[in-house]
Amino acid sequence: MPFFLHVLGLAVFAQGTSEFMLAGLVPGIARELSVSPAAAASLTSAYAIGMVAGAPVMAAWSAHWPRRRALAAFLAAFVAVHVAGALTDDFAVLFATRVVAALVNAGFLAVAMSVAASLVPPAKQGRATAVLLSGVTLACVAGVPAGALLGERAGWRAAFWAVAALCLPALALVFRSAPAGAAGRAPVSVRRELRVLGERPVRSALALAALVNGATFATFAHLAVVATEVTRLPEAVVPGLLAAFGAGAFLGVTVAGRRGDGRLVRYATAALPAGWAALALTASGAVPLFLLAAVLGALSFGAGSALVGRVLGAASGAPALGGSFATAALNVGAFAGPLAAGAAASAAGDQRAAAWVSAALAAAGAALAAAGRRTGRAARRATDGVA
User: Fold this and answer.
1) What percent of the chain has pLDDT above 70?
2) Are 47 and 101 in contact (CB under 8 A)?
3) How are the residues of the chain apportioned to helix, strand and coil, as percentages rounded to the nearest 5?
4) DSSP state, 236?
5) Residue 308 in contact with residue 202, Cβ under 8 Å?
6) By the 8 A CB rule, do 84 and 93 touch?
7) pLDDT, tens digit, for every residue of 314-361?
8) Alpha-carbon gap, residue 264 to 244, rounded angstroms
């Protein structure tokens, strides 16, 4: 694989770390900025807002930008907003920096995906995309626990500074090595692609992706608070808990890449409601909390990864916008899940309510998946009857 592809992967790793690291920084942010844990957890939703709004818009808007300038501008803006977040004492400003960071992250990914495809022959484009997006999985496995550990040892601001610093080598290499030409895409017919994205199979896959990811992040955004307030673990243990979740996520994504999406989505969506309910019931114990974090990380990220493939397959007639809509659907869940969980936890006065919200969202996803399978079987029978 070309060296510059790994440069892009480094930037995606930093951006993925930034997106997910708030799960381990919630207690420190809440304490220092004098806000509730639910308010601090909403910073995860702030990032999702920017990704939801930015992914489709940036995918179309940046299609013909000069690649080097676009990548450098998005990455430089990403660094700048993390510096601003590290310096502010105002929670509203911090919230705004998360939205802007997500917008420029979406823009960077829109250009980076086209660059990755252009660096290799068509037969290797799938592998190139996998190398690029592996940065997100590595962020779950290594970046997020490292950010939580740094936040616990040196304060949450240090994690923001670290993300900004991690982007600097990638930014320098973008200036030096990035292709200078335009993104190279054919003209995008937004109206035609939106018609494809409005078809029932695509809508169902997008809705299922949103529900599964909503269930994932409802609890993930509150996992550090569950560990410290419910399980009564010291904050020093939180990075290990996040590492367990990340290791499970890495395994789930790996299995999804090798096995395809059919059986994995069916089994995972059926198991997730019970898994989240089990976490809610046993969260007072450290051993069940760690074990279920790893198992649910595997099921959730495995299903989420497979569902992205399902969306792209169903939306093959929308090559420019299909991936961005899959990203947006995942982030609709990442936005709504923590908000619903925060409201439930505040109303109940118990952080375990977040896991019950995850169980409810996962149950809705399982019902949708089952309904989709029934519709598919009915359609096949009708087709066979006509034949």
Assistant:
1) 86
2) yes
3) 85, 0, 15
4) G
5) no
6) yes
7) 877 776 677 778 878 888 888 889 889 989 998 999 999 999 999 999
8) 21
Q: With 80 as the cut, is the pLDDT of residue 130 above it? A: no
Closest CA to 111 of 48, 168, 63: 63
Q: Are 18 and 4 in contact (CB under 8 A)?
A: no
Contacts of 294 (CB under 8 A, 6+ apart): 244, 245, 247, 248
Compute the Cα dihedral for 156, 159, 161, 163 and give only its sign.
Answer: negative
Q: How far is CA 321 from CA 111, 127, 205, 301, in A?
A: 13, 20, 15, 22
DSSP state of 63: T
Residue type, 64: H
pTM reported for the whole predicted model: 0.76
142 close to 246: Cβ distance less than 8 angstroms: yes
Handedness of CA 244, 246, 252, 257 (dihedral sign): negative
Q: Measured between alpha carbons, how far is 237 from 288 in angstroms, rounded to an integer?
A: 14
- Amino acid in position 351: Q
Residue 60 CA from chain centroid, whole number: 21
DSSP 3-state of 281: helix
CA-CA-CA-CA dihedral for 80, 86, 92, 93, to nearest 10: -30
Run of H or E residues at 351: none
Partners of 66 in beta bridges: 182
The 10s digit of each residue's pLDDT in 351-364 is 999 999 999 999 99
